[in-house]
Write a structure and sequence with these properties.
Elements: E1 13-20, H1 24-35, E2 40-43, E3 57-59, H2 60-68, H3 72-76, E4 85-88, E5 94-98, E6 112-114, H4 117-127, E7 134-137, E8 140-147, E9 152-158, E10 164-174, H5 181-185, E11 190-205, E12 216-219, E13 226-230, E14 235-241, H6 248-251, H7 254-261, E15 271-285, E16 289-290, E17 293-295, E18 301-302, H8 310-330, H9 340-363, H10 368-381, H11 385-392, E19 424-426, E20 434-435, E21 444-449, E22 465-471, E23 491-496, H12 500-507, E24 512-515, E25 521-525, H13 530-541
Parallel strand pairs: 1-2, 1-10, 2-7, 4-12, 10-17, 21-22, 22-23
Antiparallel strand pairs: 3-6, 4-5, 8-9, 9-10, 11-14, 11-15, 12-13, 13-14, 15-18, 16-17, 19-20, 19-23, 21-24, 24-25
Helix pairs in contact: 1-4, 1-8, 8-9
């Protein structure tokens, strides 16, 4: 990564993609593009990191996306996984809980983790240093853009000096937040609702022995709903709804903050790092694309915080769009592939936002009678084991799945269109058990028993695809062929440590699973039907199946 120096005489810079905004979504998008060799310019208006702990939580899907960016160890090491989330009434009595330590959706990571946003952003920005073809321009803002058939001409201005320069990009990605200049530039309106209830968000650092409530809690007090939780790196997060007539100036007074946080932490030992009043929104852009300009994250959608999915939804946008852009830019796919971005992501985002709104209604009962009824009903229904499991195991969270889009048949059919699990595997040359994605690489994957054979037939020629040969649990790793054996750079052999992969294929009556680069299932197939799936995939991405072959990089951790 090379910082871009603005100059009045700076020539027009040509890039594949210009990413506007370098918050978590923009920085992750740039990492995903950089990992796929895409020449990228990232533009960030702030001259320095903002240092404010705004976003707070991520889920197992987000960790899997960080894993695709090659930053899993760095990010996971700076997070904590809460074992329990409790819903309590105003006197602290629990009426519902989510047992997160006992919940595993099968994607390789804990279902919920808390992080410190300044540290996360620093890790993501440092990750860009791996890519000489990715540049980051601080203190620079978008002031105009103009599209034509071949690309986008972007006008940038240096915030400190007003000096302007021009960048020519094939595509522009607006990752610049709720007040997106990119969205304004292409005149895309927002639709939805903003909520009138303001909230005070307080973040701070506290020593462990000064913490009075150690579990994550939604305090469903009809007089003042609140959320409290320990965070990463010795931090603590608290949010309180304002009562009618209370002002921001009043709520941010040190004595008021001390009184509010006192039941949860020792206020004398709580070092406040941020205290702001905000209102939440349920807004979605009318469209997420205008020609060669795309919107991601808060620029495209904003949702209530009760499910903790605002940032996660932006990360899913990045994971969905980045590989499609890389394929199109490399010539391995037709530009129509990009039409599936909003087709796939919008319905899932809407469902996640609606679930968050419904959860908020449970949380925000605003009178004594409604709160009493809520507490009574929820305690009663949880005496039914299946209902209790639905709540405790977080099963009300929408599953990662697409209704329509780039998949066999164009529509979800059973597990086609859903995220594939990520169990433990062994690979030759690895010191111990790892996670499946480390063997998948950056392209499409055909996964099945080693007895299914390989290499793939001519219908797969020209497609960025790898065959992952699965050996049953108990197979000595020393018995596996070495990486890229027999001159086949498109095959990786793995041991199914816990039998999950074999069990999954048997359960769905399939010999083979075809996976997209973002780990969603494109198709299931029998061995004698896999070449037909190759033809379907070629048609889906808009590339003839007889085009010349395309090389793949090895999976991370393997040598070519």
């Amino acid at each position: 990564m090379r910082p871009v120096q603005s100059s009045a005489h700076h020539p027009v810079q040509d890039v594949d993609v210009a990413v506007i905004g370098c918050g978590p979504v923009g920085a992750l998008t740039a990492n995903l593009l950089g990992a796929r060799g895409v020449t990228t310019l990232v533009v960030e208006r702030s001259a320095a990191p903002h240092g404010q702990p705004r976003a707070f939580s991520c889920d197992d899907e987000a960790l899997r996306i960080y894993q695709q960016a090659g930053l899993l160890d760095e990010i996971r090491g700076e997070t904590i996984a809460p074992p329990l989330v409790e819903y309590v009434n105003r006197v602290g009595r629990v009426f519902a809980r989510m047992a997160l330590s006992e919940t595993d959706f099968g994607y390789g990571h804990a279902p919920l983790r808390f992080f410190d946003q300044p540290r996360l952003e620093q890790t993501l920005r440092t990750g860009l240093d791996r890519f000489p073809h990715v540049q980051l321009s601080f203190g620079t803002e978008l002031v105009g853009l103009q599209q034509d058939q071949d690309g986008v001409t972007v006008l940038l201005s240096e915030v400190g000096t007003g000096q302007r320069r021009v960048v020519r990009a094939k595509y522009v990605l607006g990752c610049d937040g709720a007040r997106s200049a990119t969205r304004a530039a292409v005149r895309i309106p927002l639709g939805g609702a903003s909520y009138a209830e303001p909230w005070l968000a307080v973040s701070g650092d506290v020593p462990p022995d000064a913490v009075r409530v150690r579990d994550t809690r939604f305090v469903c007090d009809w007089r003042r709903p609140a959320f409290v939780s320990p965070g990463a790196a010795g931090s603590y997060r608290l949010e309180f709804m304002l009562r009618p007539g209370e002002t921001e100036a009043e709520m941010r007074r040190p004595d008021m903050i001390a009184a509010l946080v006192s039941p949860y932490v020792d206020p004398d030992r709580f070092d406040v790092t941020r205290a702001v009043v905000y209102s939440f929104h349920h807004l979605i852009a009318k469209r997420w694309r205008e020609g060669r300009v795309f919107l991601l994250g808060d620029a495209a959608h904003q949702m209530p915080p009760f499910l903790g999915q605002g940032l996660c939804s932006g990360l899913r946008d990045a994971a969905n769009l980045s590989w499609k852009l890389a394929l199109v830019l490399s010539g391995a796919a037709g530009a129509t592939v990009l039409d599936t971005y909003e087709t796939e992501r919008r319905p899932h985002t809407v469902e996640m936002a609606q679930t968050s709104v419904r959860l908020g209604r449970v949380f925000l009962a605003r009178n004594r009678a409604t709160a009493w009824m809520r507490d009574t009903v929820l305690r009663a229904v949880q005496t039914v084991p299946r209902v209790r499991r639905f709540v405790e195991r977080f099963e009300f969270k929408p599953v990662p799945a697409y209704r329509r889009g780039l998949m066999a048949g164009g529509r979800r059919d059973g597990v086609v269109g859903t995220m594939f699990p990520q169990p433990r595997i062994l690979m030759p040359g690895s010191p111990g058990a790892g996670l499946l994605d480390e063997a998948l690489g950056d392209g499409f994957v055909v996964l099945g028993p080693a007895t299914a054979g390989g290499p793939l037939g001519p219908q797969w020629r020209g497609l960025p695809v790898r065959f992952v040969a699965v050996h049953p649990a108990g197979t000595p790793v020393t018995d596996l062929p070495g990486p890229f054996a027999d001159g086949q750079p498109d095959r990786v052999d793995v041991v199914d440590v816990d039998g999950v992969l074999g069990g999954w294929l048997r359960h769905h009556s399939a010999d083979l699973a075809v996976l997209r680069p973002d780990r969603f299932v494109f198709a299931l197939a029998a061995v004698d039907g896999i070449d037909r799936v190759g033809q379907d995939l070629s048609a889906a991405i808009g590339v003839p199946s007889d085009r010349p072959g395309r090389s793949l990089r090895p999976a991370r951790g393997q040598a070519a």
